[in-house]
Design brief:
By secondary structure, the protein is mostly helical. It has seven helices and no strands. The radius of gyration is 19 Å and the shape is globular. This is DUF47 domain-containing protein.
Length: 213
């Protein structure tokens, strides 16, 4: 019996952490799918759209807080306490940056770019894989599936990074006024950052997998 398997014998029967992480991933997926819908056109970027995104972000904050509370209550955890903290924080970052992307798209009233919708789709694709990875992480019974999702998230981040470079080049070559360039650049940076945050979460999950599977 491996050391990791031995320690799993003493893990609590209450799977509260797995359940909370799954709830976070569910909330993130609902948020990303709603974001795809809202960022599909300039007309959809409204106060009502932003308010719904804000609600998802607040829900994520509450779930993250619950994870931290459980860390204080449970002496034995399904995997390393630091890893639980890091994963919870990284998932919260995803919600925060989605929220920021929509907030600035609304506040800046900048020219709308088709890439806003494309980035949103990349974000949603990443969150879909992240949800799969988190559900398959439970009890470390499906390491292959977890790893496949992490690899796909990394691939999507690379595609999003290429799009970011392309959009930046086109933006600075355009004849748009400087103030509008600054606005668009800021929005695109936040959108691309979300895919970075998804990759960060995937890297943490992959690290946990290596330690315990």
């Amino acid at each position: 019996m491996s050391i990791s398997a031995f320690f799993r014998l003493f893990q609590p029967k209450d799977k509260v952490f797995y359940t909370l992480f799954e709830k976070v991933s569910d909330n993130l997926l609902s948020m990303s799918k709603y974001m795809v819908e809202g960022m599909s056109s300039k007309e959809n970027i409204t106060e009502a759209f932003f308010k719904k995104i804000e609600d998802y972000e607040h829900a994520n904050d509450k779930l993250t807080h619950n994870i931290f509370i459980e860390l204080g209550k449970n002496f034995i955890t399904p995997f390393d306490r630091e890893d639980i903290h890091q994963l919870a924080a990284s998932l919260d970052d995803i919600a925060d940056f989605m929220y920021a992307s929509v907030k600035y798209a609304l506040l800046y009233k900048s020219p709308y770019l088709k890439s806003f919708a494309t980035f949103s789709k990349y974000i949603d694709d990443s969150v879909v894989e992240l949800q799969k990875a988190i559900y398959n992480l439970r009890d470390f019974k499906k390491p292959k599936e977890v790893l496949e999702s992490c690899v796909e998230i990394n691939r999507i981040e690379n595609v999003a990074d290429d799009l970011f470079s392309k959009e930046m080049g086109a933006l600075f070559e355009s004849k748009i006024e400087v103030i509008e360039i600054i606005k668009i650049k800021n929005i695109i940076e936040y959108l691309e950052d979300v895919t970075d945050k998804c990759e960060d979460a995937a890297n943490i999950i992959e690290s946990i997998l290596v330690k315990y599977s």
